[in-house]
Amino acid sequence: MPAQEWNGRERRNTSDRRQSSDRREEIRFEPGKQDRRKNRGRRTEDQDPWQKNLND
Length: 56
What we know:
Number of strands: 0
Shape: elongated
Largest sheet: none
């Protein structure tokens, strides 16, 4: 379903609140660091028991 354009009266008193740039771009990706999404958690229930036994 295509997006419809608003035809009613504009009720906003101010311009867009989001005027600063998004800071996440500089936080989420750092070249040279391991991808954090591939890391397993630090909790014991997050660990893979099969991988632990293979490393022993």
